[in-house]
Amino acid sequence: MAVELTARARRARRVAALLALATLLFGVPAAMAEGRRAYGQSLTASLLEEPRELDPLQAQTHTEVTMVSLLFDRLYEMREGQLAPSLASAMPDQSNPLLVHLPIREGVAFHSGGVLQPRDVALSLERLRSSHYGYLLDSVQSIEVGASELVLHMRQADPTLARRLADVHASVTEGGRAPTWRRVLGSGVFRLQQRSASNREVRLSANDSYFGGRSYIDQLVLRWFEEQGAEARRYETGEAQLSLRGDIAFPGHRPKYRTASNQGDPQLLAYLGFGSQDAITADAEFRHALSEAIGRSGMQQVTTGEKVVPTKSVLPARTPVRQNSDMRTASRLMAALARRYSRLEAGTLTLDLLVNKSRPDDAAIADRVAAALFHFGIRTKRVELDAQNFMDRTRSGKCDLFIGQLALAAPSTSDLIRAAFVAGRRWQDLRALAGQSEAKLVQSFDSQLPLVPLFHRGLRVHSRSDVQATGFAPGLRLRFEDLFFFGLPEKN
Predict the structure, then answer these.
(1) 89: containing domain
(2) Which of 4, 54, 165, 411 is the most exposed place for a label (fewest CB within 10 A)?
(3) 448-488 pLDDT, tens per residue?
(4) Residues 392 and 276 both lie in one domain
(5) Do 61 and 72 form a contact (C-beta atoms < 8 A)?
(6) Beta-bridge mates of residue 192
(7) Residue 466 counted as domain residue
(8) pTM of the predicted structure, to 2 decimals
(9) DSSP string, 6-58
(10) 55, part of any domain
């Protein structure tokens, strides 16, 4: 109960601070300002792609991380850089580092109406342990279920345990089962109301029984787009309150309403992935050659002004790569490859390059990759697919190349490296990483390149003047649960 009140108190303090600021700046009496902060309104925002996956153990892209975070909870959460209990009622008791007690919050309701039990948490963690993200719980030997807690029998002391249990992949589902669009199985701050492919939107409603206090907004409408500039046009004309792809569609225009912007830290939102359709894409030397040949600096132009850091590393990047491309190294590697692959030597090699149509920025990124391949006589066939077919083909490996996205805020550098191997579907390589030091893991990534990083991107959210508390959580996820309306929108 104390933690629940603390969570609500934090939210109340933020609101009180804003009300005080309004009174100071505009002379608005607190009671009047309070009346202008509306509950029960609908907020329209956007997703970076069509959502196809709700399973926390499959979450990888920005949209997948966003949807999972809104519909599911974890034992712990990161707030303003600090770990706090969520489904757990307190921080882990690690007085005995090899026998850790995790107290589970009582009275938490799933969206189905069922009450969360320690067994649901244990089954969810066991499913995580048997997945490709099981490395998050490598230190856990077994899980014992108590009446109101879990007891973790540890292989070794793990001071990062709570942070790992706050990872998006450690989300708890009812019965530990894999959720679907028909059976969400979550307990999150929002409920799934409707998903409409024809309208390209997902509608979520506030979870009135949420243990941490319901969201300020009553309904959240999240839309996706296939046309470049469509999201900015909708925002510019006042049809949406938030936009991630700019506030105007055409230079010289101004949005209908006064706008504020908030910039997030760069995250790896674009990489080149490889399927198993052609033997050459499984060759690490080919991936290295392509990485050296790609001109990354031009990719800054595919976004809408937010911070973009071209990089060859999966690790968080603050400064761009010094060398945009290294054609001398790329040519040397390609020459060696030509002696092993006759189609490359004969100039008859054609590779499919898959693009998700619901991520309109990716077509321009694919063009940059195609240009690098064409320099070596390799033709590409750009294949634009709907989100479902794109997901099916990239996960099954039935492709040559694809433009991917990795929006994970991993607990550590080593976990981020291993997540990149999962994204690259290098299962055999992933198993070989067990027990490696952080430096060795970085070296393994650099030598094997399960995927080729292209750039880190810091999303910029544009918000209408009456929308308050916009901010980013780990993984560049907008904190929709904290948003509220204050006053009336001001026209430009």
Answers:
(1) 73-187
(2) 4
(3) 999 999 998 889 999 999 999 998 988 889 999 999 999 89
(4) yes
(5) no
(6) 204
(7) no
(8) 0.90
(9) HHHHHHHHHHHHHHHHHHHHH---HHHHHHHS-SS-EEEEE-SS------GGG
(10) no
